[in-house]
Amino acid sequence: MSDLFDEEIYEPSRSGDWEGAIRLQERSLTRLQRMVLDYLRKVYPSAITDHDMEAHFRDHRSTWRARRSELVAKGLVYDTGRRKMQDGTQRILWRATTWTQPNT
Questions:
Q1: Under a CB-based contact definition with an 8 Å cutoff, are residues 76 and 26 in contact?
Q2: 64: how many CB neighbours lie within 10 A of its CB?
Q3: Annotated domain spans of the chain
Q4: Nearest-CA neighbor of 40 among 78, 87, 70, 73?
Q5: C-alpha to C-alpha distances, 86 to 44, 58, 66, nearest whole angstrom
Q6: pTM of this prediction?
Q7: Nearest-angstrom CA–CA distance, 78 and 97
C-alpha cells in the first residue's frame, strides 16, 4: 500500500506484526536519526533529555533535538511524561519505544 507521496505504508496484519512495522520505519532512517535511536536504545531503560543527548554527542546545536523529534513522529521515541531539572529548566525525559507482541 502507498500513500499520496508513494511512500510505503505498513499496516500490521490482524495478528499484529509489530516487528515488521518497526523494521519498515527503521529502513527509512537517516544516519543521524540512526545515531540518536541507537544511543537511546543503548541507555534503555533509562530515559534522557535533549541536553543529555547533546552532551553525549558533544554538540549543542539543534541537530540532535531535530532528529529526536523526527523519531517521535515515526513512533520510535516517546515522551515518558517525566521531567528532569537541568540548568534551571524542567526538561522532558525521552525513551526509545519498545515493541512487544500483543497478547492474542
A1: yes
A2: 22
A3: 30-96
A4: 78
A5: 20, 17, 19
A6: 0.72
A7: 6
pLDDT tens over the chain, length 104 residues? 444 444 444 444 445 666 666 666 777 899 999 999 999 999 999 999 999 999 999 987 789 999 999 999 988 999 999 999 999 999 999 999 876 544 44
Architecture field, domain 30-96: Orthogonal Bundle (1.10)
Written as nine digits, the cell of 104 is: 492474542
Q: Specify the length of the chain in residues.
A: 104
Cell numbers representing residue 27 in the block: 529502513
Return the sign of the alpha-carbon dihedral for residues 85, 31, 44, 68: positive
